[in-house]
């Protein structure tokens, strides 16, 4: 089989010429094997019909295998010549032929340096695209977090509005002032509790010394 990649032919045909030749070779070989089995079956029937014939089926199989090997060797030689002709004259695109989809390269030729510059620019654009995608995802995540915080703040505001309404119903006056007084009272209670705890510790220490 040919080792030439024949990339341009593959682009045109949609398959590699070597693959085509391999399938043709396999089809011929399968047909040769099937034909030998048919010949072997016919020979067995004919010989079984001859009285006194001493040729056994195993002997017929050996003869068939020898003939098959002989045919395969000659077939491989003929196929090698056929493959060479087909790859050169049938499945080969001449060097001076340009496919329609590649004519734009003839109109706008470019050097290897220009192509490499385009490749570098393409990589930069791809990197920028990935960075912008990551930034967009981060912004979306931040917006989702802000929505959650906003929902919690709205709940807190609703709670304060409810407390203010309750204070008004019970004549407590302004909720903000009441809340400030409540905060001061809590702080005083905390200070008193802290003072009691300190005095309690001192009394325990005094009892231990006694």
UniProtKB/TrEMBL annotation:
UniProt key word Glycosyltransferase: no
Recorded superkingdom: Eukaryota
Localization per Swiss-Prot or TrEMBL: Chromosome, Centromere, Kinetochore
Keywords: Cell cycle, Cell division, Centromere, Chromosome, Coiled coil, Kinetochore, Mitosis
Major place of residence: nucleus
Coiled-coil residue windows: 108-206
A Pfam family recorded for this sequence: Mis12
UniProt KW Signal keyword: no
GO biological process terms on file: cell division; kinetochore assembly; mitotic sister chromatid segregation
InterPro entries, A to Z: Centromere_Mis12
GO CC annotation, single: MIS12/MIND type complex
Family in the record: Belongs to the mis12 family.
Name of the protein in question: Protein MIS12 homolog
Organism: Callaeas wilsoni
Gene: Mis12
């Amino acid at each position: 089989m040919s080792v030439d990649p024949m990339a341009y032919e593959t682009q045109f045909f949609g398959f590699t010429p070597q693959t085509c030749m391999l399938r043709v070779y396999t089809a011929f070989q399968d047909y040769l094997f099937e034909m030998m089995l048919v010949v072997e079956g016919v020979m067995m029937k004919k010989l079984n019909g001859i009285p006194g014939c001493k040729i056994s089926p195993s002997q017929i199989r050996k003869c068939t295998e020898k003939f098959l090997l002989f045919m395969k060797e000659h077939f491989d030689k003929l196929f090698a010549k056929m493959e060479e002709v087909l790859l050169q004259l049938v499945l080969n695109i001449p060097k001076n032929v340009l496919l329609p989809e590649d004519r734009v390269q003839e109109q706008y030729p470019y050097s290897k340096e220009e192509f490499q510059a385009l490749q570098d620019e393409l990589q930069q654009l791809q990197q920028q695209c990935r960075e912008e995608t990551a930034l967009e995802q981060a912004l979306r995540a931040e917006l989702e977090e802000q929505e959650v915080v906003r929902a919690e703040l709205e709940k807190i505001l609703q709670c304060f509005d409810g407390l203010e309404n309750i204070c008004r119903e019970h004549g407590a006056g302004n909720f903000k002032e009441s809340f400030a007084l409540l905060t001061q009272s809590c702080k005083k209670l905390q200070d008193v509790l802290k003072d009691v705890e300190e005095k309690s510790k001192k009394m325990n220490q005094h009892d231990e010394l006694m």
